[in-house]
Specification:
The chain is an all-alpha fold. Helix content is 63%, strand content 0%. The chain is globular, with a radius of gyration of 14 Å. The protein starts with 7 loop residues before the first helix and ends in a 7-residue tail after the last helix.
């Protein structure tokens, strides 16, 4: 039995989640190896989440959120309303830095989904 085909909107959503994860890493100033150890997953698994190639399980994503002081709402829908004002500002600055890196070609190509298309399942902020 082969793998079930992934719908384009599912791929887009996974890439959007990967983008949010990358923004959190940008804010933290650490690399994926450190994150993988911190939340107890392999680096290849983590890389698949960051590129949108795979979905993270809820338990692992909860560990990620706890480790980096963000909410699932932020990761999956881009909402900052349940974060402290300081944390929301840090992530906003990291988002600008990450987007600038994309424009300069320094960030991963897999997470370049246009903002207007990123969160079909919920509104951004």
């Amino acid at each position: 039995m082969g793998k079930k085909a992934i719908k384009p909107e599912q791929i887009e959503f996974r890439r959007a989640v990967g983008r949010q994860l990358n923004i959190v890493l940008t804010a933290a100033g650490i690399d994926q190896k450190v994150v993988a150890r911190k939340i107890g997953v392999g680096t290849s698994t983590l890389n698949q989440w960051f590129t949108g190639a795979a979905r993270a399980d809820v338990e692992a994503m909860c560990r990620f959120c706890e480790a980096f002081n963000v909410t699932l709402d932020y990761i999956y829908r881009g909402k900052t309303e349940f974060l402290t004002g300081t944390r929301a500002k840090e992530l906003e600055a990291a988002e600008k830095k990450y987007d600038e890196g994309l424009r300069k070609g320094l960030a991963g190509k897999a997470t370049e989904a246009p903002k207007a298309q990123i969160f079909r399942m919920g509104q951004r902020r």
